[in-house]
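Bug report

Summary: structure tokens for Aspartyl-tRNA amidotransferase subunit B differ between web form and batch submission.
Environment: batch mode, default settings.
Steps: 1) Submit the sequence below via batch. 2) Compare with the web form result.

Sequence submitted:
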Amino acid sequence: MPELKNRITDDMKSAMKAKDKDALKAIRMILGAIKQIEVDERIELDDTQVLAVIQKMVKQRKDSISQFQAANRSDLVKVEEAELVIINNYMPEQFSEDEISVVVDKVIADSNASSMQDMGKLMGLLKGQLAGKADMAVVSKLIRSKLS
């Protein structure tokens, strides 16, 4: 069993023992999403794939929070933010914007990218290097600013 999945399972057991309902709910959601993919595709996810599931859940929570804030639903915003905090515990350390900028500069120089037509190629190269460590929306914004 992958290390990240083991950690999540162990945390679920700890949350059960501590009777932490909020953490237990969020962790069960993570494990449910992982299990759903494993059953649908008849595979066991490795750490990289588990991380991709967690990243998707983080993005969903952020989107929900912004929509609930726009709808003035602070009660639902609090629920989503609490889940986001727990889900973020399983994300690797995120790069700062300066660190992302250094990586983007290096990839632009290495690939001789010079215009916005190279955006797709750059995003493909950077996605592999920054997977789980950077918000790809920030990466995209930095590429746009550097190529325009």
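Above is the batch result. After comparison, the two runs are identical; trailing whitespace caused the diff. Residues 3-88 form a domain with the Hypothetical Protein Yqey; Chain: A; domain1 fold (CATH 1.10.1510.10). Residues 47-70 form the longest helix (24 residues).
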